[in-house]
Amino acid sequence: MSRPKITIIGAGHVGATCAHWAAAKELGDIVLLDIVEGLPQGKGLDLKEASPIERFDAEVIGTNSYDDTANSDVVIITSGIARKPGMSRDDLMSTNMKIVRSVAEQASKASPKAVFIIVSNPLDAMVQTAWKASGLPTHQIVGQAGILDTARYRAFISMDLGCSVEDITAVLMGGHGDDMVPLPRYTSVAGIPITELMPKEKLDAIVQRTGKGGGEIVALLKTGSAYYAPSAASVQMAEAILKDKKRILPCAAFCKEEYGVGGYFVGVPCVLGSAGVERVIELKLNDDERKLFQASVDHVKELVAWVEAHWQ
User: Fold this and answer.
1) Lower CB density within 10 Å: C or N end of the chain?
2) What are phi and psi of 219, to 5 degrees?
3) Residues spanned by CATH 3.90.110.10 within the chain?
4) What dotted CATH number matches 5-143?
């Protein structure tokens, strides 16, 4: 029986660290692809040489050719540029849309049955781009954002309460970062509602810090952005798909009737299994939560409108 095949497109910090996490978990054979000659080959070989030490059995190759990605089970797209000083959001979107469009077109031809996990930013616009470029069914396209935000939220709660991250359960919805919709009433620690363990002011501060979590790391690094947690989140999604775990995870999934969204990829809790997004979980939102979620959806619609207007 052959091992599952995971293609990771983009051999920068996020892509290479995805390969690291996936290999360590022995999720399958890994293909690391990048347009820069030598970069994916070098990182792939380096990771393969770690296998006797860390005791994982997996083929790890680096390549510049989509032929090597054929018949992948999961494709993780991390390609794109980071926003540079003086660069407008439109410039960033324009550049990354072209990159993700090209990547999705080529990768979907090589692996039409794969589930595609999109990590590139701006996330919501890039998920829409990948879906449109690939022509794949919506359940095979999913964006990573909510897991990262939820992980940051849980980490900050753990740091404040002095308890294990394993005992903290939380749900966040909506867009990535500032657009996220916190749901404190769905947050608990070992089954105990967070509102019984932490004053509202403290929780509000944690929510605010979570929304700006990526910016906090960028400010500290000065010359880069987060990659350990984003890549771990992406590989958690890949594991749920490859092992058909039916995990309920917050992801950017296609919603039509769900939440009355009307046909956009937005951050919602969904069931991830071998078919990709197998079901969207509809929570009963209160008025405040619904307003925040609608504002997030409206922003996604703006991004999608931009993609549609600049699609040539």
Assistant:
1) N
2) -65, -35
3) 146-309
4) 3.40.50.720
Taking Cα atoms as reference points, which of 283, 240, 35, 34 lies closest to residue 117?
Answer: 240
Q: Locate CATH 3.40.50.720 in the chain.
A: 5-143
Nearest-angstrom CA–CA distance, 8 and 15? 6
- Residue ranges of the chain with per-residue pLDDT less than 70: 85
Tokens 């290999």 -> residue: 23
Residue 176 falls in the annotated catalytic set: yes
Helices (H) and strands (E) in the chain, counts: 9, 14
Select which of 13, 176, 299, 310 is catalytic. Answer: 176
Q: Which two tokens stand for residue 74?
A: 């999961």
What per-residue confidence (pLDDT) applies to 266?
Answer: 96
Pick from 299, 311, 309, 226: nearest CA to 267:
299
Average pLDDT, the chain: 95
3-state secondary structure of 183: coil
> In terms of CATH architecture, what is 146-309?
Alpha-Beta Complex (3.90)
